Structures are given as structure tokens and as C-alpha cells.
Amino acid sequence: MKKQLLLLAAAITAVSLTACSSNSNNSSNSGAGASSSVPASPASTASASSAPGTAAPNAGIDDGKETMDITLMVPQYAEIGPSSDSELVKKLDEKLNVKLDIQWIPGASYNDKISVLAASNSLPDVYRVATQDYMQWRDKGVFMDVKPSLASYPNLTQYLPEEAWKELNGKDRYYGLPYYSIPHLFSMAIRQDWLDKLHLQMPATVDEFYNVAKAFVTDDPDGDGKNDTTGFSIIVDSDGKFENAEFLEGAFGLGNEWALKDGKLVAMQAQTEELKAFIGFLNKAYSEGVLDKNFLVMKPADARNKLWNGQVGIQRLNPNEALRLDEPNIQKNFPNAKLSQLLPAGPTGIRATQTDGMGQTKVVINAKIDPKKQQRILKLLDYMLSDEGYDLIKDGVEGVDYKKKDDGTYEKLETKDAGNLFSINFFRRADSAIQLHKYNDQNYVKQVEQWLDNNDKYDWPNYGLGLAAETEVYKKVNFATLNTKWMSTMVNIITGQAPIDDIDKAASDWLKNGGQQLTDEVNQIYQERQ
Ligand SMILES: [Ca+2]
Question: Region annotation Disordered: residue ranges (predicted)?
Fold first, then answer.
């Protein structure tokens, strides 16, 4: 980090020197002996304003009169997005006096496409970029620093929180706009009909959670007379991290990657006391058959299938799908199935919801294009977050994507492309209701919003979010391998093949083999940004 700062300082000095020398050259070239008493000539003003670093805001103010061609690239997945000649894009074209060339690229090959375009120096004017590519090119002059321009585009800062802007950026330069991700998207869900059948209350603590999960194993909640249900599952992923277990990790006081203790960041891999409580809980659950015996080989889709098949009654879900997709699928076999939200508190009263970054994916503007075009793109993005523009990119065009009915409610119309896909896949407000539309059933909308609102109450912050990728040690040590080695000890303890005190050795090994250096560097960056 120190090295980077020195380089940055050197770069700034170089720019100021260039600016100074070009000014002094101009004054000597002007030939007037007493240059200090002479007002700046038009020539020297023009020359100074084109010097790098001093120019951008005034260099060329876009008055909006010129029609501009703008290339825009965005990934698409199952649904097809509006093409360049769609009614929706025509409205954007007219509003901004632009001709948008929209390239929807299949999501699976999107990052490869970006790499190919970067290699041939033909990146689009504005596009979405994943964390890894963003970090790789952030400091290499590929993306426009939009921070100096933000004052002119108030919707951008009004509808996107400062924390999302700062992610992966620090506080001085914003090389990308946040593609906003809902921080508390996922909920734990429980089969309410199983609770009712066994006359059990919604568990309020992790101890009650344990007892309910155990009853789901031993007390035949589906009433078929067979011992064929399990309590809950967790996932161990290929990066050596737990999934589906966030509510328990948080409840036992573990950090969401990074905890904050006395102003210092502590890696969760080194929180030995909290780990002993959490892993000890899982060990007991495993030995009593409450934790799914197959958890080690399960993928998230397997865990969800078990919920749909009625084999498990507790699972992590996306509220946007819980009532629309998960509950109906369980009901195919169990018509009375009903899902409720589950939020048990830990020993010290902590409730935690899985909490993710809000701006880990970015929308970037090409640094190499005409500054006037950059401004027009900012104007376009700003419009997309205005009331009128956001209504357009979120719900589509009235009469094309939906219609207003006589009773004042809205109805979705059949279209070949999805009029909501710019907001889903490209750019949107900090809007937790991003997947809820005016043409949805409004009772359904209220229920989903209730789940999302409940999630928001139990934030589980990652105090070192995104900082690891900025460290030097991150380039030298393979942390997926190091974390996986650490995780193998955790798994051995959970499954009863190693004693709980092995946590101390796993933590010290993790620190010794790169974790301590990571912790030191991450703390240094964290302090610099406070
Ligand atoms: Ca049964």
C-alpha cells in the first residue's frame, strides 16, 4: 500500500510539473518580457485547460445538441433484453438525443467478452464489469473517474448510498458507478405447517432453533410415520467458506469475513472463542443427526431440492422466490405447506442476516472517449435513476410491457423482450423492491417487502469488505487454498474426527501462512479510509 501511495504521489507530482512547465513555456513563448503583469493570453488558457488532470470539468461542456452514438454492453441470462430498435430504447434515445447501440451478451460468456474487447482496445462506451476485472483495471486508466462530475447529476447520489460508491474505490476517486446489489437479500425460511403440526413456537433463539430442528428429525413433522426428514443443512463452498450458515455465524459473534474489535479488523478464521461456540454447536447437531449428514457434498441447489421434496424444513431462500417459486413447489406434494421467515438470536442476543456488498459490481464509463460523450453517458445514467427514467427501465413502456386497467391497477403484457431488464441487469436505484413491479399482485408485493424489511433489521456488516483484493499479499498467497485448509479442520471437528481445541492450531496456521499479513494490510487500508 505504501508503495502504491508513493507511486500515486509521484504521478500527481508529474502531472503538476507538466502543468507548470507548459504554463511557463507558454509565457516565455508569448515573448512578452514582463509576463507576470500581462493577463493570460487566450493561447495559454487553452493550452492550460488541455493539460491532463486540470481539464476535465470545463474541457468541453456537453450542451446536449449533438446526437451521439453510444455503445452500451450488458449481460443477459434467461430473459432477452430490449434491442436498440425497441420502444423502450427509442424513448431513451429521444430523451438524451443519443443513438444507443445496445449489446446484450450471454451472462456465461460476458466476462470473457470483456477481456477480448479489452485486448483489442475496443471496449464499449459504457458497460457493466465484475469485481475481478474492475480491480484489475481500476488504476490503469481504463475507467473514467466519475467523482468530480457527480455534483452535476444529483439523481446518482440521491438514489445510490455513499457506501455503495465507496466499495472497491476508497473515498477520493470513483472509477465506476455501483450496480446496486441488495445487501440483505436472503432469508432463512422454516416450514410453518411443520411447526404447527408439532405444536411448536417459532424459534426465537439458537437454542430454540436447535430444539425445533431436532424435532423436525425425530417427531415425524410430515406425519407419514417414517423417519425421513432432517433438521437443517449448511454448505461448504470451494473457497473454504460456509454458506447457508450466516444466521448462525453471526449469532455466535463471528464476523462476516471481518469482525471489528476495538477499532481493529479481525478475520473470522482467527476468532477462536466464537469459532469454538459455533463449531461446537454444529458438532452437536451433526452427532445428533440434526445437521444433514450429507452437508459436505451438498450444493445450494441440492439443499433447495430437499426443501421442495419435503425432506428438510429449514432453508435459506430469496424472498423474491420464496412465495412465488419455493412454496408452490413444496405444495405440489404437500398442499398445506407454508413458509415463514426465521430469525433466531444468538447467546448474546445477536440476530444476523446474510449481508453482502452493495457495489461489488460496477457500471463503468470508458476513460478514452470524448469527455462530451462521457457527460452524455452520465446524463443517461442520471436519467435512468430519475422518477420518470426509473419507471421506464423498471417497468417498461406503457402499452408495450404493461397496460393500465380501468380499475387503476396494471397488467403485464406479453412481449418478446423483458422491459425490466435494464434495471435488473444494468443499472438501478438502491431499491430492495427491484424485482417487484406495479403490474404484480400488490398483496404479494407487500408480503415480499415485509420479508425484505425484516432482513434489513439484522445487518451483519463485513467491516473489511473488498479490502483483501487491494493488498499485496493477496497477489502472492492463494487464499482459497489457505481457507480450504482451515476449513478442513472445521469439518473434521464438526464430524467428530478432531477435538474442538484444534481450532487454535487451525487459526494460528492460517495466520502464519498469510492470514496475519492479510490482516495487517487490510487494517492499514481500513485506517486510511476512515
Ligand atoms: Ca416422516
Answer: 23-62
